[in-house]
Amino acid sequence: MTRLFNDPTEFADEMIDGFVSANAQQVRRVAGGVVRSTRTPDGTVALVIGGGSGHYPAFGGIVGQGLAHGAAMGNLFASPSAQQVESVATAANRGGGVLLSYGNYAGDVLHFTQAEQKLNAAGIPTRTVVVTDDISSAPVAEKHKRRGIAGDFTVFKAAAAAAEEGYTLDEVVRVAELANERTRSVGVAFSGCTLPGADEPLFSVPEGRMAVGMGIHGEPGIDETDVPTADELASLLVDSLLAELPDGIHSPEGHRVGVILNGLGSVKYEELFVVYRHVAALLQNAGLEVVDPEVGELVTSFDMAGVSLTLFWLDDELERFWRAPADTPAYRKGSVGAVQQLDPSEVQEAEAVVIPEADEASQHAAAVVLRAIDAIATVVDDNADELGRIDAVAGDGDHGIGMQRGARAARVAASEALALGAGAKTLLEMSASAWANKAGGTSGALWGVALSAVGEALGDEDAPSAAAVSAGITGAVDGIMSFGKAEVGDKTMVDALVPFRDTLAREVDGGAALADAWKRAADAATQAAAATADLLPRMGRARPHAEKSLGTVDAGAYSFGLIVQAIAATLVGKTV
Amino acid sequence: MTRLFNDPTEFADEMIDGFVSANAQQVRRVAGGVVRSTRTPDGTVALVIGGGSGHYPAFGGIVGQGLAHGAAMGNLFASPSAQQVESVATAANRGGGVLLSYGNYAGDVLHFTQAEQKLNAAGIPTRTVVVTDDISSAPVAEKHKRRGIAGDFTVFKAAAAAAEEGYTLDEVVRVAELANERTRSVGVAFSGCTLPGADEPLFSVPEGRMAVGMGIHGEPGIDETDVPTADELASLLVDSLLAELPDGIHSPEGHRVGVILNGLGSVKYEELFVVYRHVAALLQNAGLEVVDPEVGELVTSFDMAGVSLTLFWLDDELERFWRAPADTPAYRKGSVGAVQQLDPSEVQEAEAVVIPEADEASQHAAAVVLRAIDAIATVVDDNADELGRIDAVAGDGDHGIGMQRGARAARVAASEALALGAGAKTLLEMSASAWANKAGGTSGALWGVALSAVGEALGDEDAPSAAAVSAGITGAVDGIMSFGKAEVGDKTMVDALVPFRDTLAREVDGGAALADAWKRAADAATQAAAATADLLPRMGRARPHAEKSLGTVDAGAYSFGLIVQAIAATLVGKTV
């Protein structure tokens, strides 16, 4: 139950404000997240981590000496946008290059990958190591498909300590990859969690039951049992991890391991210690030597009740990094060296926006686009609860709130752009950027791609033709399919996009006015979305089993249908 | 909801085992709790804190450099016994004397006061500063009656830093008293908590409501409202604290304050940060300068959902102590100096028990006493759930579990004593000590006092007469009334004890055999207990409003009645 909030759509922002205010000795706010407030020697590799909010201390809480240099902090359970990651990494960069590291979730992969490309293009050498420690989320043969959970921490810790020692970017990458290979976690859950302003839990576990392998956003597990005793749980966790030794380790006997027994939120410290008592005994019985165990909350999931156990199989170098000191808001260890506070002028911030010149015809078109974006924001507002409800069936239930944040931000950005004299292309680009940035998550990124592609086709000169709009839509659909890696039939928004694109192109080619063509295309999209939505009753309200990890699936098709219908209404009477 | 445990009666012990196992760098286990595992310079004042378990990181989690030297860790929500406090303090003592500091709860006051007397008698200069920061729990004119909540931490921190600087015991006491005067807290609660093995919450708050001023064990608050927004809550907390400035401070303007925004368990870090954002703004608006705020969990109450705000009004000396470094399992700050691990041989442990000689007649009497204690343990086991249920009406619901732990431990100790040849007095003393030590809480202490007083009257020589037993019971009742400060009519176990004592004495004086006299006395006790219990329906299941803070009230009378009846059965056929 989340009880304390103001406007739920502002929760993540206000949380970051309060967090930074309480921890100014260690972190300072930049666009997109936080960076260290302390000085880092020039030439040091910067470790930039991130992910959705709601997992404190992940991710902002572990920024500081000996750990991350910056954290991109997305909205609740939603990936930060590429722009957020780029902004934080630019601010964190000290000239030694950037390592991006984060847990393996589709939305995060999309955005961090995009950011990596932009950073490299901007001359900041950037690499990525994705954390895949959750053994329940895919077979060992497909370790690259596994999710990242509390093992994020061991990978971050090792990479950060290597950077602190002056390792080069290549060397830090090597360490992080080895740490990821040497880190295995398994988790269980006893309850779900409820996001701010939500009436119902995002997901749940039946009372008295335990979901084995459930992910920190409620991703499906591999088994469900009665809640065991503390000792039985310890055995289950230890046995599961000892059944899968990392490459090159053939027996636990004589090995040294870092250990994290992590609580997800509502499991209390006292319970963790009771479980740890038996975990420690079992590891010792197996011949392992435990090094600096951590029993507490390193990755949470709001008020979810759950526990995970992580083993970090050390070699001498990894052990040095595991034992190294750190001083962050939520994690402190040993004694770090004296440090100076960073002068704000030393942080490179994003540059101010420059509005390219546009002719009067394109400024006029921009005003029409603003009305369309206004219509989007309104229809999303009106349907936010319903979108959330649909998304909760097979996704994480945040589609309504995410779309709302994105569309509202796009409307503000579009208004500002119009006031500054922007043409259609610039207005759409600024809206796209605002949408992706504020909405976070996968759908935010996809709408950013879409608006941006349409803008590209419309340009900042001349009144756009119906053909240009149709070309823009084609570009948007191509972009979404390429970015999101979904095909028709995957039950994603692509199922509605493709008939929309095809109908629009056919009608425009046949000489129809834009308003008429758009309306017919919108009808085709709505019909396709409804077909997708028809699946819902059969999917039931059980835990998500969707194979696709594009979080918004059918809800995305449904919202797309609503939006193109709303835009159709704004086009009535237009003569393009 | 507490889900992870083995045997609920072993929960606190197993929790301490796991806690010590995970934090061996900072703490080591001793009888009764933990002490630092690191070396403290000889002559340093030792700060010994403590209280019931279930409040992690209070109290064991804040033992370490810069904070406490030892923590007496009681059972769940139950005071540690005097013996536990004495044991921990003896182990923590480095020759500079001991400061005992803890939150102001009746059970803790009883046990720590007893321990203080014993420590002083044993030549360890010992003083006490009780923390009374909760402004909702009594008017300012009766600050000494207020409970201690998260403000425990500021008092401990200041006292510990003073000790670390080499202050004498008198000076550390002065600092702790000033810190307590300068510390004010106010708390709110949104839900109760559930102890291990319990079917129902110990206490609760209606869904959607907020109990203003509710204590960390569910003690009644001063108001109940709907759950406010985060900003409204921040205003409520700040306004409440600014309405009561400490002595000598006439305006917040220009003052410096340490701040703790404390979560009690289920309120998430993210929510705390959202609230803190506005707290910080309000404090700044009031002209205060915030020094090193702490936003997190410093005193919890299992999975209770609640928040408290603490202001610590600093002067230069207190600010130095507030800013001082610390390194404990749950709280680390800045960089502490290098430190050596303590050699276990340097810790003074309690001495082994010596069994005084006893004659055959007294050994025979001891065997009869063992049967009586066995009967106590059996009847308590059989009625543990019922005792918990009765206690939950007006107390904290742990009477059944506490009596069970105590009686079982007494039975084990009595068996061992008998096997070692103990007489009646020694067997009762060892049972008394085991009961008080294992049961914790007020009833544990009272039963310890009672068994010990009976033993004193029986001696280790000769078969005890009925008159000796009656004298022992009179001594026991005197001891309980003096220790517990309760009178007949207060609805405590005294209501059953006094008629028991009076009937027994009258019958024995009149020449009745012990078995007959005891049976009649037991009937009188049962009748009195039933009269006390009759109040229950009228008290309803609402939140406790009992004025007496002797937690077990009517349940104690009821269990006393059961016990003396069970003993009566063991005496049938005895010819004393």
UniProtKB/TrEMBL annotation, chains A, B:
Residues 7-331 form the DhaK domain. GO terms for biological process: carbohydrate utilization; cellular response to carbohydrate stimulus; glycerol catabolic process. GO terms for molecular function: ATP binding; carbohydrate binding; carbohydrate kinase activity; glycerone kinase activity. It holds the Pfam family Dak2. Keywords: ATP-binding, Carbohydrate metabolism, Kinase, Nucleotide-binding, Transferase. Residues 367-569 form the DhaL domain. InterPro entries: DhaK_dom, DhaL_dom, DhaL_dom_sf, Dihydroxyacetone_Kinase. GO terms for cellular component: cytosol. Pathway: Carbohydrate metabolism. PANTHER family: TRIOKINASE/FMN CYCLASE, TRIOKINASE_FMN CYCLASE. This is Homodimeric dihydroxyacetone kinase.
